[in-house]
């Protein structure tokens, strides 16, 4: 199955379905569900609708009537890292989970059904970066991108690209494009000749309390204003704003510590 989208709507891209391997959804599990909704609603203009309750209370964030992300509530006795988790698309999540295991990764949750929305698994690559796998049914995934308030890029921060590139290529069928710059260890991952994510080898510069992890980038109109708004809402800036090939960006954390980046891209 290829990805289908329409370059229409509120100035962005409407997604009808996502190609296998392409990031198709992003979700966050927190302790304070209502407070987290208030934070992201104020930051991105999201509204919320109930989603599947298979893990407990769960809502889907809505922007311009399109579902763009999910937020769930952790049980009180679960003390897991609070982190945005991207879900990579699959036509057969059970087969993908088997491939994860055979290629040296681990599967921590599932595969299991999320009501009639689809089927999922939560996995980790051989060096520990956690990601989800999503087989869409009634819920195709992120419905809108390329406007402020939507996820627009996903990047794996890891020790080096060589240690995990084979894993992701074998499991999801990516083709790779090295970014050739001095002292930069970076691969673009392609599906159908289109870049869908990146792997950034940062060596000893990984945060010691995080280890390898996936970073989600959300589009905003003004990065500096968004960073200020994050602090006003109880979050904090992790890395100051800078200009990158993707656009001007800043890495921040919400009040529960979930780290994400906001970016303003040239259009």
UniProtKB/TrEMBL annotation:
Domain VOC as annotated: residue spans: 22-136, 150-265
Top-level lineage group: Bacteria
CDD domains: SgaA_N_like
InterPro entries noted in UniProt: Anthracycline_SecMetBiosynth (IPR052164), Glyas_Bleomycin-R_OHBP_Dase (IPR029068), Glyoxalase_6 (IPR041581), VOC_core (IPR037523)
Residues that span the membrane, as ranges: none
One Pfam family named in its UniProt record: Glyoxalase_6
Gene3D superfamilies documented for this protein: 2,3-Dihydroxybiphenyl 1,2-Dioxygenase, domain 1
Name by which UniProt lists this protein: VOC family protein
Source species taxonomy: Bacteria, Bacillati, Actinomycetota, Actinomycetes, Kitasatosporales
């Amino acid at each position: 199955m290829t990805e289908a989208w329409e370059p229409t709507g509120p100035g962005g891209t409407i997604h009808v379905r996502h190609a296998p391997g392409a990031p198709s959804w992003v979700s966050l599990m927190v302790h304070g569900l209502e407070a987290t909704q208030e934070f992201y609603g104020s930051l991105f203009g999201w509204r919320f609708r109930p989603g599947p309750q298979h893990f407990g209370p769960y809502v889907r964030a809505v922007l311009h009537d399109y579902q763009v992300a999910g937020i769930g509530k952790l049980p009180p006795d679960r003390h897991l890292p609070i982190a945005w988790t991207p879900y990579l698309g699959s036509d057969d999540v059970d087969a993908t989970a088997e491939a994860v295991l055979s290629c040296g990764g681990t599967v921590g949750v599932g595969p299991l059904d999320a009501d009639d929305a689809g089927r999922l698994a939560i996995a980790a690559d051989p060096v520990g970066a956690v990601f989800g796998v999503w087989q869409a049914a009634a819920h195709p995934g992120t419905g809108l991108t390329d406007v402020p308030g939507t996820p627009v890029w996903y990047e794996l921060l890891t020790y080096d690209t060589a240690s995990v590139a084979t894993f992701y290529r074998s499991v999801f069928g990516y083709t790779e494009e090295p970014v050739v710059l001095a002292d930069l260890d970076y691969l673009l991952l392609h599906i159908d000749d289109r870049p869908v994510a990146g792997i950034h080898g940062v060596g000893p510069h990984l945060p010691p309390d995080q280890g390898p992890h996936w970073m989600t980038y959300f589009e905003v109109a003004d990065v500096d204003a968004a960073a200020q708004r994050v602090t006003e809402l109880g979050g904090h800036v992790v890395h100051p704003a800078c200009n990158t090939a993707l656009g001007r960006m800043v890495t921040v954390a919400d009040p529960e510590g979930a780290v994400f980046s906001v970016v303003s891209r040239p259009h």
